[in-house]
Amino acid sequence: MRLALREAKKGIGRTSPNPCVGAVIVKNGEVVAKGYHKKAGTPHAEIHALRSAGSAASGATMYVTLEPCNHTGKTPPCSHAVAAAGIARVIVGMEDPNPLVDGTGVTYLRERNIEVVTGVLEDECRAINRPFLKHITTGLPWIVMKAGISLDGKLNYQQGESGWITGATSVETVHRLRNIHDAIMVGHHTVAIDNPSLTTRLTRGKGRDPIRIILDSALSLAPDARPFTVESPASTWVFCAETVEEKKVRQLQSLGVRVFPVSCDANGLVLHQVFRCLAENGVTSVLVEGGAALHGAILRERLYDYANLFLAPVFAGEGGIPLLSGYFASCKEDAVSLQTPTYTRTGDDVMISGCLHYP
Ligand code: AOF
Ligand code: ZN
């Protein structure tokens, strides 16, 4: 199963809205085939492994990180292919919560006298598919806070000024995060101040640009802002209030930008509606890169699932913008926190990551 997980991980960030899945076929104690899912709409992991095993699949054991599917979607059911190939035993990492599968793959195999064991390295199998699992079970994407902050919790040195607080290794790590999330989101202030291109630029290897999402309730941004003009295979989507002038919407659309008008409340765009709309459009993960108002609002709405914070050993001082605006906690028990965080050194900085825990 560890080998199957290693296979599955080759597809991380490339299979959306489908899961990343790995499969390994073992016969007489030897690995005879491996396979992983590469892209939605193409053959599943099990099929790659079965094709590579050929006749050796007969009487063999298959290890697969996710329950084999039992439905005809963009591809035929893997459960049928597994049974037809004569696999004798299937070891499953986790059952598939997709309502189209949901235990039926396991049942199908057992009905054909194939031995099935489930829940092997289940936590690890879950961990590699958090976006898929959240999306399919809740209709919302996996929402991740990303920020570079100083020791005094500031995003920059002076209000209204751009500039990275963190070092080069953290920046590279951020680009690796962009590479594996479906979309990247910023507020209109961040675009006005930083004018970021929001693309993936890796020093080694080929990156994939995420969809660039900007929240701009009044459509106040200039049409020559970089997220609208920097060339990318990925598109740019803007969320605005339903009340904005049609002329402004059409101007952005003429640049190839997709515009989504949504409801507003006293705090601005209704974030729950924004994320639901993203999920409906196939976005399973969103990396939110700020700024303070957006981080504060998403946290306040308890929408964040995970955080990657890059802490730089510098004191930015009173001129800097604090990480969160509009968020208050009266005591530790009342505060949002990270659950069993991990600490990873990135150059002189440290990346603090973990799932959010809401009181
Ligand atoms: C994958 N790759 O390796 C496995 C999947 O539309 P389809 O036919 O591609 O089916 C997609 C569903 O199949 C997916 O949501 C998941 O529940 C199940 N298993 N999907 O894309 C795979 N094993
Ligand atoms: Zn399948």
TrEMBL record:
Gene Ontology MF annotations:
5-amino-6-(5-phosphoribosylamino)uracil reductase activity; diaminohydroxyphosphoribosylaminopyrimidine deaminase activity; NADP binding; zinc ion binding
Specify which residues bind Zn(2+) according to the UniProt entry for this protein. Answer: 44, 69, 78
Q: What is its pathway?
A: Cofactor biosynthesis; riboflavin biosynthesis; 5-amino-6-(D-ribitylamino)uracil from GTP: step 2/4; Cofactor biosynthesis; riboflavin biosynthesis; 5-amino-6-(D-ribitylamino)uracil from GTP: step 3/4
- Residues of the active site are 46 (proton donor)
Signal peptide bounds = none
- Looking at the record, the residues that make up the CMP/dCMP-type deaminase domain are 1-116
Record field: catalytic activity: 2,5-diamino-6-hydroxy-4-(5-phosphoribosylamino)-pyrimidine + H2O + H(+) = 5-amino-6-(5-phospho-D-ribosylamino)uracil + NH4(+); 5-amino-6-(5-phospho-D-ribitylamino)uracil + NADP(+) = 5-amino-6-(5-phospho-D-ribosylamino)uracil + NADPH + H(+)
Q: What is this protein called?
A: Riboflavin biosynthesis protein RibD
What is the scientific name of the source organism?
Answer: Desulfopila aestuarii DSM 18488
